[in-house]
Specification:
The chain is of the alpha+beta class and 881 residues long. It has 29 helices and 31 strands. Among the domains are: 2-97, Beta-Lactamase; 393-524, no CATH class; 527-715, 3-Layer(aba) Sandwich (Rossmann fold); 721-866, Rossmann fold (3-Layer(aba) Sandwich). The strands form seven sheets. Strands 1, 2, 3, 4, 5, 6 and 7 form a seven-stranded antiparallel sheet that branches. A hairpin with a 2-residue loop joins strand 1 and strand 2. Helix 3 (111-123) crosses helix 6, helix 4 (131-141) crosses helix 6 and helix 19 (490-502) packs antiparallel against helix 20. It is elongated, with a radius of gyration of 43 Å.
């Protein structure tokens, strides 16, 4: 395919190789890398020796691949000319590929090889035509032809005899040879045929390529009736001169690499335990792993997985393992083990993506071992899900601590200890623990409640875009509030944060980061470093703020504010002064519950200012949105949230014991002593006072059952009906001034609430002449267009006495024609003629629940009775915002 002619001459005591440019033929004319002159001394040692060697005919491999016929490395045939002194004067280099006949003819029938092969056979010492000689010749005839041209007679004999010795022995052998030019390393690998497959070939190839520091590799395989399979690997090695090859060590690595999986599993078990332990483990798990698992994983990985299989079988919980991966494009392999049930990808994928990972693929393997060492009974099925993933943002290798943080974060998310959202990306890109990421999420949630301009998604994205500032914010928070930590770094860290924020070019991102810094600056206390009863850090947080120091907080500004946050509940407690009390309500306004509480604070300032100069109000929302089967479950969920909320308030409140102030444990206080905390019942919490007092008692709080008014040792809001009675007296007077006695005459009512409520429930049983045409709460709408006062009164009284009864407990047989009980979540409600007449609705057709409620509120009835739930009336001068 190509031809080049070179002249070798001496110049100033230096041997120079000169290319005769007019000699180039074929593909050689297109080789741009050919040099016109080259000093022999500049060539690698082996190449220089090869050129000077007084040998007429030589063979070698080119470092370039052919673009003609087949994409193999070119073969060189080198013919030398000598002067009378035996010095090389010219070299004729022919470039091409051997024809197919070279690869199929017997070695002795090829003239250029006959002499080399004959010499090797003679030097073997075997009897001519004897059995050993025939075996040796068979090995040579099947020897890779490229190797046969390049190998010396002595090396050929040594390798061929070595091959004959391992035939049919089931052992593995490696033969390594460097080429003359110092460009290639040729490896002949013989392994037992039953162990040969593509996976083993690739594993051997990868191992040798790594050990030889090779850039490229060619391979071919040979299988015959022999029990051995041959793999011929030719590696292109740029740094071959400095390469030291330990053939025995490489051979040992190959043997271990291709060892039968079961044998390797046993050997690996021996490495991590005693012989008895290894035998027991092997008996228990020998049948655990499927053939597909064995194809995908090594025995060493299986030994590691046994630990997770045992953990899942004993705990019933999931187990995870994040480790580096060598698969294409993948940075990590994330193994997730589950018990009995195969996990749904739709449950796992969002968690990994929110943690900052991109998923390449997922593989699932069922695993099952014996349930006991002395039993043949199968144990529980374990599912292994292996995700190949890489980081969305990756600036540096992930440390061992980073992997541990990731695994802990996944456990926390999976067990719902923390929310699954984009804040979790901070674990990987900022090196934070899941609690530290949750801390930043909590502060973001508070920013939302004080009407910060940006969405939670943008806030999380901003924090992830500035990982160093995010980690510095955590460092500042830790320096301020971690117990027994020196405060000398506070000023330095804060200065560093301010300087970094000054360098942020985007104004919106600047605002987010400064808002976080402002919250930390305004923070007085936190329970973030407190331990629970088991000695673990708590997974709910509470923060005490001084709102006057927070920019942009809606007015009026309380003196102190406590924000409680967890994955299940959020709440605020606003206090106008050091000594202030007020109710805590169970809000259903998850998006703006603080606005609701702030509205109550404003109302309290107006109506109570003469009695109490300052007051307090609080509210919480239940964040768990999973469906419940009945009201009892709904109530129980609210109680759990309330308990967390109360605990969060008490966690950071001072106590008094024997007249001495006792600060809360593991809380750094940046304010004055503050032991006064009193709460009361409000909407949704009328029966919760005993719960609050029980929690206060467990804290040893100094106020005892005076902490929450309305408990069993106080007064029952609903039973005594204090608020309702006062309101009813006002209603009676209003009607009396119009000449109506509602205790003796029928009157029509539309109400907001249900019979389980304090104000609504009491009001609707004060007069047997009440005609309740309709009422609604947050779940249902009651419509009774023409109620029977007597029977409906008795039914309302029954529900009131039953307690915690929704409108769905109402006996529908007592509802007048055209009425009913409807879900507020319904898509539409059919309008009956009776409903149309009672509420002025359009005749026929349907309305939405909200349209029905609007019609009820604007209907011509004698009384609108409010149960303290929401605001439904405004003047014509007020706006809808």
């Amino acid at each position: 395919l190509g031809y080049e002619k070179y002249r070798i001459r001496e110049k100033a005591g230096e041997s120079i190789i000169e290319l005769e440019s007019d000699s180039l033929l074929g593909v050689s004319r297109y080789k741009s890398e050919l040099k016109s002159q080259t000093k022999v001394s500049s060539l690698p040692g082996a190449a220089a020796d090869f050129i000077r060697r007084p040998k007429l005919l030589s063979f070698a491999k080119s470092s370039k691949r052919s673009k003609v016929h087949r994409p193999a490395y070119y073969d060189y045939v080198l013919i030398k000319e000598f002067d009378k002194a035996g010095q090389v004067t010219h070299m004729h280099r022919f470039l091409g590929l051997y024809t197919s006949s070279v690869y199929f003819r017997e070695a002795l029938s090829i003239p250029l090889l006959r002499k080399k092969v004959s010499r090797a056979l003679e030097n073997s010492g075997y009897t001519k035509n004897g059995h050993n000689m025939k075996d040796l010749l068979q090995v040579i005839n099947t020897f890779p032809r490229d190797e046969l041209f390049q190998v010396s007679s002595k090396a050929l004999l040594d390798i061929a005899i070595g091959i004959t010795k391992i035939r049919d022995t089931g052992t593995s052998k490696l033969f390594v040879r460097k080429d003359f030019y110092g460009r290639f390393v040729s490896c002949l690998v013989y392994i037992p045929r039953e162990l040969f497959n593509t996976k083993s070939r690739l594993a051997i190839q990868s191992l040798l390529q790594q050990r030889l520091q090779a850039e490229d590799v060619d391979f071919n395989t040979y299988l015959s009736e022999s029990s051995q399979a041959r793999i011929h690997l030719v590696f292109r090695v740029p740094s071959i001169r400095a390469l030291k090859i330990d053939q025995n060590a490489l051979e040992k690595e190959i043997v271990e690499l291709i060892r039968p999986w079961e044998e390797d599993f046993m050997e690996r078990l021996r490495e991590v335990g005693t012989e008895d332990e290894a035998q027991q483990q092997y008996k228990q798990f020998a049948e655990c792993f499927s053939s597909s698992y064995k194809e995908a994983y090594t025995a060493a990985e299986a030994v590691e997985d046994v630990r997770f299989i045992n953990a899942v079988a004993s705990s019933g919980d999931v187990a995870v393992n994040l480790r580096e991966s060598h698969a294409e494009r993948a940075e990590f392999s994330f193994k997730l083990f589950s018990l009995e049930s195969q996990l749904m990808l739709s449950d796992v994928d969002p968690i990994l993506e929110n943690l900052g990972l991109r998923i390449i693929s997922e593989s699932t393997y069922p695993l099952r071992g014996n349930c006991a060492l002395d039993s043949s009974e199968l144990g529980p099925r374990i599912w292994l899900h292996d995700f190949l993933v890489y980081r969305s943002e990756s600036n540096s290798p992930l440390s061992a601590e980073g992997r541990e943080f990731f695994e802990q974060a996944f456990y926390a998310i999976w067990s719902a200890r923390v929310e699954d959202d984009s804040y979790n990306a901070l674990v990987l890109n900022s090196g934070l623990s899941w609690r530290q990421a949750a801390l930043l999420r909590a502060l973001g949630a508070y920013l939302k409640q004080i009407r910060f301009d940006y969405s939670q998604g943008f806030i999380a994205e901003t924090l992830s875009s500035h990982p160093k500032i995010s980690s510095d914010l955590i460092e500042l928070f830790t320096a301020l509030f971690q117990p027994n930590k020196s405060k000398r770094l506070v000023a330095k860290v804060r200065t560093r944060i301010v300087k970094a924020i000054d360098g942020v070019s985007n104004l919106s991102e600047d605002s987010v980061l400064r808002a976080y810094l402002g919250l930390i600056d305004a923070m007085l206390r936190t329970n973030f470093f407190q331990l629970d009863a088991t000695g673990e850090l708590k997974d709910y947080f509470s923060f005490k703020f001084e709102p006057q120091r927070i920019e942009g907080v809606p007015k009026p500004l309380p003196k102190f504010e406590i924000f409680v946050y967890s994955s299940k509940v959020e709440g605020v407690h606003l206090r106008g002064g050091k000594v202030a009390r007020g109710g805590l309500r169970w809000s259903d306004r998850r998006e703006d519950y603080r606005t609701e509480v702030l509205g109550l604070v404003k109302a309290q300032q107006v109506k109570n200012s003469v009695i109490v100069p300052v007051g307090a109000k609080g509210g919480f929302v239940v964040k768990d949105a999973t469906p419940v089967a009945n009201r009892a479950e709904f109530q129980a969920r609210g109680v759990r949230a309330y308990e967390t909320f109360i605990a969060g308030l008490l966690d950071i409140t001072d106590n008094l014991k024997d007249g001495m102030l006792v600060p809360p444990d593991r809380v750094v206080r940046l304010d004055e002593d503050d032991p006064y905390l009193v709460v009361a019942a409000d909407k949704g919490t009328a029966t919760f006072s005993d719960i609050a007092n029980g929690i206060a008692a467990s804290y040893g709080f100094w106020l005892g059952d005076g902490f929450a008014s309305g408990g069993s040792n106080g007064y029952d809001h609903k039973a005594m009906g204090i608020t309702a009675k006062g309101a009813w007296i006002s209603v009676q007077r209003n009607f009396r001034e119009r000449g109506i006695d509602i205790q003796k005459e029928e009157f029509s009512v539309v109400g907001i609430g249900d019979m389980s409520g304090d104000v609504f429930g009491n009001g609707m049983i004060y007069s047997p002449f009440t005609k309740l045409l309709g009422a609604f709460n947050h779940l249902h709408i009651l419509v009774d267009p023409d109620p029977n006062p007597t029977s409906s009164f008795k039914e309302r009284k029954r529900l009131f006495d039953k307690g915690r009864s929704p409108w769905t407990d109402y006996n529908t047989k007592l509802i007048s024609v055209g009425g009913g009980i409807f879900e507020r979540a319904a898509k539409s409600i059919k309008v009956t003629p009776q409903m149309q007449k009672a509420f002025g609705l359009p005749a026929g057709g349907t309305v939405t629940p909200n349209e029905l409620i609007h019609a009820m509120l604007t209907a011509e009835v004698d009384l609108l009775w409010f149960g303290g739930i929401g605001t439904y009336i405004k003047s014509r001068d007020e706006k809808n915002i």
